[in-house]
Amino acid sequence: MGAEPLIRLRDVAKVYRSGGRRVTAVSNVTLDVAEGSMVALVGPSGCGKTTVLKILAGLHQADAGEVRIGNAASGFVPGHDVGMVFQQALLLKWRTILDNVMLPADILGLPRRAARARARCLLELVGLHGCEDRYPYELSGGMQQRAAIARALLHDPKLILMDEPFGALDALTRERMNLEMRRIWRDSGKTIVFVTHSIQEAVFLGSSCAVLTAGPARMADTFEIDLPVERGLDIKTTEAFGGYVRRIYGLLGLE
Amino acid sequence: MPDAPGPTSPPAPPGGADAAEAALQRREERRRTAWRWLAILVVHVGLVLAWQFGVRASGLPAVVLPAPTDIIVTLAKQNYAWADNTWVTAAEIVGGYLLAVVGGVVLALLFSWSRLLTVAVFPVLVTLNMVPKVALGPLVITWFSYGLRTNMLITFSLCVFPILLTTLRGLREVEPDLLDLVRSLRGSRWAVFRTIQLPGSLPFILSGMKVGAVLAVAGAVVGEFIASDRGLAYLMIQVQSSLDTPAMFMAVLLLTLLGMALYLAVLLLELALVPRDARR
Fold first, then answer.
1. What does the pLDDT average to over A40-62?
2. What's the ipTM?
3. Domain boundaries, chain A
C-alpha cells in the first residue's frame, strides 16, 4: 500500500442551518483512506455518516477542516472518479439492466461501444450474467442491487461510495451480498467507502473502520480491522471478530 | 429466497411449464380482446341502425332529427366545402395542441429548474387556470383579430394547463438519491433531464396529453363560434341559419372524428414510448 492515502480528512465538520438553528451534522472527522482499501463508516442514525459520504462525493462542501482526495501517485478527477451506490438500487425502470449499467457512460459521454463491452464484463463480475436484457422489475432486490454496483463501476472510478448498500435487503440476502462484496472489492481493486449501521457488516467487510456517534455528531475512533483477507461468514464466530464488534459497541456506548 | 444464485449458476432461462402456461394465458387474453372489440362494433352499428329505423318509423322531420342517411348525403353539397372546412379546423386543433404540448413541457421544465420562477409565476398560472378559458375567447379575438392563429391560441389556452401540471408532477417525481448520483458524475441539468426526468415523466406527459386532446377540439370550436370565416364550427353556424340540421350533424360528426384521430395518435405515441407497466 502506498504511503500517501487516497483520501485525507482532517477535522472535517459540516453544519446545517434549519430555520435559524444550527445543527452539527458531523464534526472532527479525521480519517485516512488508503488506496485499494474498503473502509466502513459505522454509527447510529444521525451520526453524520451519510454527510461524510456526500462530502467525499463532492455533493456537499465541508464547513471546516481539510478534505483532500487523490494523491501524487494517483490523481482524482471529480465526476469521473466517483461511483455511488445507495440503499435503493434506483434503476431506471424503462431501461434494461445493461442500459441501466450504461447510465454513467451516457452522462459522462463515454464511447458507447467500449462502455457496452465493459458493462457486460461488470454484470458478469457481479453475478448477473444473462440478465442484460431484462428489466428491473423482473429482478429481485438483491439482483437489482448487484446491477447498481455494476453501474457504479462502469466508468472505472477510483472511489466507490456506498450508502447503506444492503440496508433494504432481507437478512439472508444481506449475508450473501456481504460475501459477494468482499469478492467484488478484491476483483475490482477499488477503494470503497461504505456507510452502514450494522456493526457486524462493518467488521466483516471493512479493512478499516471509522466509528461515528450521534448527539453530538462526531467521530469517535478509527482503526484497522486486522482480519484475514480471505473471509468466510464463519469468521464472525471467531474471537478476533468478536473483539472488533465489542470495541465498536464500546465506542457507541452500548456496552 | 429472493436473491438469485451466485455467479456460478446464472438464472435459469424461461421455458418448460412456465412458458406453456404463459402462452395459454396470452391466447386467452387475445380471445377476450377480440370479443370486446366485437361487442363494441355490434353496439355501435346497432345504435346507428336503431337511429335510422327509429327516425323513419316515427316520421320525424329531418330538421328536428335527421336519419344517418340524411346526414351522410349532405357530404355531396359542394357549397359546404367540407374538405376545406375540415382541413382548417384540423389545422387549428393540431396547431394549438402542439403549441400546448411544447409550451406545457417547456414551462414545466423551467418550473422544475427554478425555485424562484416557481414561487413567483406558478401561483399566477394556478389563478389563470381558474379563469374559464372559453370566456376569454371574445377578448383574444379583440386582441388578435379572428382567424386560424387566434383559434390556435384559444385551443392552446385550453390544453396547456393539464399538460403543464401533469408534466410538472412527473418531473418532480425523481428520487433525490438518483439526482445525487447524476450530480456525483458532474452531470448537467440537461443530462438529468435527458436521461432521467424526461423518460421518467413520459407517462405523466402522455396522460396530460390525453386530457388535452379532448379539450383541443372544444378550443377550436369555441374560436370558430365566436368569430371566424372558415372551419367546421363556422359552417355549423351558417347552416343553422338555413335550418340544415343534417349538415349540422355532419359537422359534429367530423369534429368528433378529428378529436378521435388526435386521441388515437396520442394513444399510439404512448404505446410506442411508454413501457407497459408504467402507463397511466
1. 89
2. 0.87
3. 1-81+161-255, 87-156
